[in-house]
Design brief:
The chain is 37% helix and 18% strand. It has 239 residues and is an alpha+beta fold. The chain has two domains: 2-83; 116-237, Chitinase A, domain 3, CATH 3.10.50.40. Helix 1 (2-14) packs across helix 2 (34-50) and helix 1 crosses helix 3 (64-76). It is elongated and about 75 Å long.
C-alpha cells in the first residue's frame, strides 16, 4: 500500500524533528566509513523527499515520538519491544487510513452542504437546478460558449477556508481548454457566462472532484470556490 510505505519513509525525516527532549540526529552522524556515508545519504535523500508527507496523515496529527519508536524497533528487529507485529502494523495502518479517510470525507461533505445552504440565501447568489451557485461580478456582452467550444479564462480556485489551490492569475497566463474537458461545475458555469463576464462560482463536491478529491489540497467531498473571468472563445476550435 503506497501510503504505508510513505509513512515508513517519513520516519527518517521525523527522527530529525524531535524536540529538545531527544538528542539531535545530526550529532550522531559519524561518517567514518563509506558505509556510514551511504547510510547517512539514504537518510537525507529519503527524508528530504518525504518531509511533507506527515502533514497528509488523515485524522489527528502524527505522534512523532511514537512513530520514531516504532521505526527504530522495526528497523533493528527488536521484536520483544514491539507492541504489534509487522503484519499487525500493516493491517492496522490500512484500516486506519480507510476509516480516517471516510470520516474526513463525510466531514467535508457536511461542511460543504452547510456552507452552500447558508450561501444561497445571500444577496446576489443564484442557485441552479444542479446545486451550482454563482454571483455575477461583471456581466459581459459577448456570446456564451457551447459545451464543445474552447475558451480562454483567468481564474482563481480556493477551498471554503480561502486556501488558494490554483490560479492562472498567479501564473500570469490565461488558461485555455474545451468547455467539456473540465469538472461538471465549470462546464455548467462557463455556458452561463457571456464573454467578458466575471463570476464567483461555488461548486458542490458532486460537481467538482467528488469522493476522489484532487491533489494534496482538494480533499474528498470538498466544495470549491472559483473566481472565473471569461476572456474569449477560440474561434479556430469551433466546429
Amino acid at each position: 500500500m503506497k501510503k504505508v510505505s510513505v509513512l515508513v519513509a517519513t520516519a527518517i525525516v521525523a527522527m530529525g524533528m524531535v524536540t529538545t527532549s531527544c538528542e539531535s540526529q545530526s550529532s550522531k552522524a559519524t561518517l567514518k566509513t563509506a558505509a556510514d556515508s551511504v547510510s547517512y545519504a539514504i537518510g537525507i535523500s529519503t527524508g528530504a523527499g518525504y518531509k511533507e508527507n506527515l502533514k497528509t496523515l488523515p485524522g489527528e496529527p502524527a505522534n512523532v515520538d511514537d512513530l520514531i519508536a516504532g521505526f527504530i524497533q522495526g528497523i533493528k528487529g527488536e521484536t520483544s519491544a514491539m507492541k504489534m507485529t509487522p503484519d499487525e502494523a500493516q493491517a492496522y495502518v490500512q484500516e486506519y487510513f480507510m476509516m480516517a479517510t471516510a470520516r474526513d470525507a463525510q466531514n467535508n461533505k457536511t461542511e460543504g452542504e452547510e456552507f452552500l445552504a447558508n450561501n444561497k440565501s445571500k444577496k446576489g447568489v443564484i442557485t441552479t437546478e444542479s446545486g451550482l451557485q454563482y454571483e455575477v461580478i461583471t456581466e459581459g456582452t459577448g456570446e456564451r460558449p457551447s459545451e464543445t467550444d474552447k475558451v480562454k479564462v483567468h481564474y482563481k480556485g480556493t477551498l471554503l477556508d480561502g486556501t488558494v489551490f490554483d490560479s492562472s492569475l498567479d501564473r500570469g497566463e490565461p488558461a485555455e481548454f474545451p468547455v467539456n474537458a473540465v469538472i461538471k461545475g465549470w462546464t455548467e458555469a462557463l455556458q452561463l457566462m457571456p464573454v467578458g463576464s466575471k463570476y464567483v462560482v461555488w461548486i458542490p463536491a458532486d460537481l467538482a472532484y467528488g469522493e476522489r478529491g484532487a491533489g494534496q489540497d482538494i480533499k474528498p467531498n470538498s466544495a470549491l470556490v472559483f473566481e472565473i473571468e471569461l476572456l474569449g472563445i477560440d474561434k479556430d476550435d469551433k466546429k
